[in-house]
Amino acid sequence: MSRRPSRAFASIDRFVIRIVFDARAMLVCALVAAAMPQARAQAVPDVSGTALIGANAARGISGVLSINETAGLDNAQANQLAIGIGSAAGAGVSSLQAAGTAAHTGDTSVRIEGGALSNLSGAAMVNQSAGSANLQRNSMAIGTLGVGIEAVSDSELSETAPKAGGLGIPAGGRDRRDVSISGDAFKHISGIVQVNQTAGAGNSTANSFVLRPPAGTLFIN
User: Fold this and answer.
1) What are phi and psi for residue 120, nearest 5 degrees?
2) What phi and psi values does residue 147 have, to the nearest 5 degrees?
3) Where does the signal sequence lie (predicted)?
4) How far is the C-alpha of 52 from the C-alpha of 140, rounded, in Å?
5) Using one digit for the tens of pLDDT, what is the confidence trace for 124-166?
6) Percent of the chain having pLDDT more than 70?
7) β-pairing verdict for 97-112 and 6-12
8) What pLDDT digit, counting tens, does each position of 182-218 carry?
9) Is 156 helix (H, G, I), strand (E, B) or coil?
10) Closest alpha carbon to 53 in 122, 130, 106
11) Measuring CA to CA, how many Å separate 170 from each of 21, 53, 167, 177?
């Protein structure tokens, strides 16, 4: 018996705290693909893969570290950092992401091995995914001018929650999804770390960080 294809869709509608990552065209392609005749079903791709950050990778880094790593089909990733310093400076970032596909999503694995991303100082943003139609975003905004960063209400935050459609995975499927971070990774870190890891189909994950220190705050290394 042949497996039905997974139809995965994920979207992040809005992120209030201006740099735009816009993947709306991918959504249009997904809608067109969904309307194709059933006769084309045999052309649905099989998707599997592994995203790996090896042992002792990216050690001893100072400053800003940005990693996007993905294996599979129609995955979207973004890392965003905005810093505003001065009497008339503000900081802000925004993004709109969408991804959709029809695929047989098989075994997928995402791993960060021992010693990786250790002894870091600064800001580290890491996205890792394997599979299909996964969205990931890391966002940081740092500004010394209060009006440069917008506060978000609880209702607005709820509107940014990921919305995912049904995946159509057959009952009794044996495809594996593995996500792991070694206990020896991310040691001795000073600063901000954001990590997204997803394996499978139609996942949406996001990290957001806003820092608004009082006027006159000094940043000392």
Assistant:
1) -100, 150
2) -75, -5
3) 1-41
4) 24
5) 999 999 999 899 999 998 876 554 445 444 554 444 444 444 4
6) 56
7) antiparallel
8) 999 999 999 999 999 999 988 889 998 888 776 655 5
9) helix
10) 130
11) 33, 31, 9, 15
**pLDDT at position 202:** 87
Q: Residue 15 — very low, low, confident or very high, per pLDDT cuts 50/70/90?
A: very low
Model confidence band, residue 3 (pLDDT cutoffs 50, 70, 90): low
DSSP letter string, 163-209: EE----PPTT----EEEEE-TTSS-S-EEEEEEEEEEEES-EEEEEE
**Range 79-95 average pLDDT:** 67
| Amino acid, res. 177 | R
DSSP, collapsed to helix, strand or coil, labels residue 104 as strand
For position 60, what pLDDT does the model report? 95
Token pair recorded at residue 51: 């995203």
Using CA atoms, how far apart are residues 162 and 13, in angstroms rounded to an integer?
Answer: 8
Q: Rounded distance, CA 63 to CA 219, Å?
A: 13
**How far is residue 121's CA from residue 113's CA, in Å, rounded to a whole number?**
19
CB atoms near residue 61 (< 10 Å): 14
The residue written with tokens 């500004």 in the block is 143
Beta bridge partners of 95: none
Q: Which two tokens stand for residue 75?
A: 């995955």
Within 8 A by CB and 6+ apart from 42, the residues are none
